[in-house]
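Task: sequence in, structure out. Protein: 4-hydroxybenzoyl-CoA thioesterase.
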Amino acid sequence: MVRRKKTEASLVNKTSLRVRFSEVDSMQIVWHGEYVRYFEDGREAFGREFAGLGYMDIYASGYTAPIVELHLQYRKPLKVNDTAVVETRYIATEAAKVCFEYTIRSATDGEVVAEGSSTQVFLDSRGELQLLAPEFYRKWKERWEVK
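Result:
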């Protein structure tokens, strides 16, 4: 397994969630795939707090940003009605990509239930990979004072 070294985050968002019945499996714990959705919830909340990097902002700028890499490590299961906090950390890079690290903690005791990371790249309206950071992304980084 490839493990990314934890990097100091430049921007951080925290968002809360409550586990719904539809998110648990026959073992009465959150189905493993839901944690990827929780990461997405974190990215969406991040995009709302740090305006300009939300999915619709990227799309309105003429780009898409598909996930090309995702890592997830489970630590402790969540159950129905548990509350958790998703911490989403933007990891600055000079490359034409968006990197996040995530920690999901139990809101009750603060224990880590899952950790992970994701990498997104930019595609233009023709679906072509952008090797240089798009102008909107460079301006976003300037606005939020990140590399």
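The chain has three helices and five strands.
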